[in-house]
Amino acid sequence: VAIKGIERELICPACKELFTHPLILPCQHNVCHKCVKEILFAFEDSFADGGSESSNQSSPRIKISSSSLDRIDRVSRSGIKRNSLTPRSSLFPCPGCQRDIDLGERGINGLFRNFTLETIVERYRQAARAAIAIMCDFCKPPPQESTKSCMDCSASYCNECFKIHHPWGTVKAQHEYVGPTTNFRPKILMCPEHEMERVNMYCEICKRPVCHLCKLGGCHANHRVTTMSTAYKTLKEKLSKDIEYLISKESQVKAHISQLDLLLKETESNSERAKEEASRSFEKLSHLLEEKKSAALRAIEASKNLRLEELQMQAEEYQGLLENNGLVGYAQEVLKETDPSCFVQTAKQLHVRIQKATESLESFRPAAETTFEDFVVDIAKQEEILGDLSFHSNDLEVPEINEEQSKMYNKALISWEWPGKTESADIYVLEYHKVNREEERTTWQEIEVSSKCKVISDLDDDSSYAFRVRGYKGSICSPWSREVILRTPPAPVLSFLFDDKCGYNSEHLLLNPGRTSVESRAGFPLLLGSERVQVGCYTTLDYIIGDTGIAKGKHFWAFHVEAYSYLVKVGVVSSNKIQKLFHNTRDVTSPRYEQDSGHDSGSEDAFFDSSQPFTLVTFGMKKFFIPTTPAAPKDPMSTILPLPSSLGICLDCDKGKLGFYDAGCMKCLYECEVDCSGVMYPAFALMGGAAVHLEEAVTEKYGEYHDDT
C-alpha cells in the first residue's frame, strides 16, 4: 500500500494534524494525547466560567466544532462538578463521533496508547521526509547520519557509536534495533489500570485489552474474556477478510468514485445556475426599482416646474404693482387721458384690475406650495418584505412557539419546538414587538438563538408582546411561525420566600429546604379537633407569611396551588395585624363553619368578612371562590371559577388595591380595596391536604435548563 495514500486516516479529528501519541477512546476513535488534555481543560474551564467562551479560547491548537462546544455547554449546565482531569466520572466530547464519552474513574489514565497507529504515522512521516536524514544522537559534532535506532535505549546511532554503546558480550548487545526512526514505543503493552501488569487477555464485552488483575477483581470481573493470542488471531482473520472483500469490490468502488465525480461537477454547474437565477431575480427587482425611481423623480420634476411657473407669474403680477411698472404704470398713463369718452372706455376695465390687485394685497397667498410632502415614498412595508427576502424551502419545517412552556414573569421565557422527525435548524431567529394598536407601523426586535428557548429581559410591565420565530439551516430559512401574544405582569415582580420564623407552625406545615413550597399534612389538624366537633368548635387554619414586606409602590407575585388541595387562602396581611392573625384561634370562614351545613367544599368562603385582620380569598377543590358581601348576595355558581394553573396577586399600596390574577394570561379575576396603613406581607392559609408553590423567577440558567429538559 502506498503510504502517502492513507493520510486521511492519520489525521487527528481535533487538531486536524498528524497524530501525536494517539489515545484510543472507548468509542474506538483516536485522538492525540495532547488534544484530549486540552479538550478536557476546555471542558473544565466551561464549568468554572459558566459558559463556552473560555473553552473556545482555551487553545489555538485544537479546533473544536460548534456542536462539541454546545455539548460542553450542555453538560456544564447539568450541574456535574469536576475538580481534576481524572474525576469520578469524566465525560469527554469525542470530536470523531460527536458523542459524549464516559472515560470512567481514571479519566485519561485509563486510555490505551495506540502504538500501531503511532508506528504507521511514523512510517508516513519518514516517507514524506525521505530526503531528511535522522542523525546520530551520540556523535561528536558534526553528527553522522544514523543507521540504526535502538528500541530499548530509545536512541539513534551511526555504525561506530552503535558498536561502542552495544559491545558484544554485554546485555545491551541483546537490545532490539530497527532502521532509523524517531518513533520509540515500549516492547510490552502495560495495563493502564494496573501499571505493573502487562495485558494478556482481551475483554469481549468492552472490546479492549486487560490484565489478569482486571479479570480477577477489577471492573472486568464478570465479563467474558479471551486470550490475547486468540483475540489477535480472530481479529486479524476478520480484518484480512474485510480487506480482501473491499479489494475484490475495487471496480464497484471506482464506479462510485466516478459517480461522485459527476455529482461534484453537477453540484458546481447547478450552483452556478442557481447564482445566475438569483442574480436575474435581483436584477429584475433592481430594474423595477429604477423604473419606480425614474417615475417618482419625473413626477417631482414636473410638479416643481409647474409650481415655479405659477410662482413666477405671481411675482410678475406683483412686480406690476410697483410705481411706473406694469399695471400701475399703465394706469398712470391712462390718467393722463383728457378726453372723457376715451378715458371712461379704458378706465372701466382697468379699475376692475386695480381692485383685484388691491384685494390680493390684503390677503396674500402664494400661488403654489413649496413643500413636497405629497411626494414622500412610504417604503415601510417594502422594507419588511425585503428584510424577509431569503431562500425558502418547502422541506424545512415551521417551528412552533409552545405557549404552555413559555412564561412571562420577572423576565420572558419563550420556548419553541421543531415539529416532525427532521433535524432541528442550525440557528433560530426570534422576533418580538410590543403590541400597540395606536401605532400603525410595528418595529420587530430580532435575536439570534442557537437553542430552542430564549430569556428576554427589560420588557414593560402590564403590556402585551407578540413573538414569532423562524429556523435557518445554512442559508435556507423556514417561514415565520404563528405569532403568539403574551402579557407581562401588571407590576414589577416581588421576590420573597416563606417565613419559617414568624408564626410558622412546624407541626402542621412542612416547608421545603428552599422555602419556596409549603404543604399542610392532610388530616392532622382535623384529628386534633375531632373530639370538639360534637360540641360545635371550629377547625383552625394554619397560616404562613412571606419574609418580605411592602411599604409602598405596586408589586406582583405568583404561585401555584396543587389541584388536590382541599382549602387554601391567599392574600395580604398588615404588619399591624400579624399578631392577631396568628392568635386567631377560630376560623370563621372554614368550609366546616356549621356542623349541619352539608357543604363539602369552600363555597361558604365566598362571603367576604370585613372583620378579618387580613384580606384573603379562597381556593379549594380545584375552584376559585370570588368573595361577595352578605348585603348583596349573588348566584353562588357565578362566583365560582375553575382554579387556574398559576395564580398571581398584585398589590398597589399607593391606591390601596389588591388584585387576583390568572398568571397564565395575566387576566384580573377579582379586585378589592385593602388598608395599606402598615407594611404589607404576602399571606397564605392551608387546611387539610394542601400545598402552595411560589413561582420560580426566570433567569438565564432557568432558560438553559428548560431547553435541556
From TrEMBL:
Location of the B30.2/SPRY domain: 476-701
GO BP annotations listed: acrosome reaction; spindle organization
Main localization category: cytoplasm
GO MF entries: ligase activity; ubiquitin-protein transferase activity; zinc ion binding
COS domain segment(s): 335-392
Keyword match Metal-binding: yes
All copies of domain Fibronectin type-III, residue ranges: 398-491
Keywords: Coiled coil, Cytoplasm, Cytoskeleton, Ligase, Metal-binding, Microtubule, Repeat, Transferase, Ubl conjugation pathway, Zinc, Zinc-finger
Listed GO CC annotations: acrosomal vesicle; microtubule
Record-given protein name: TRI36 ligase
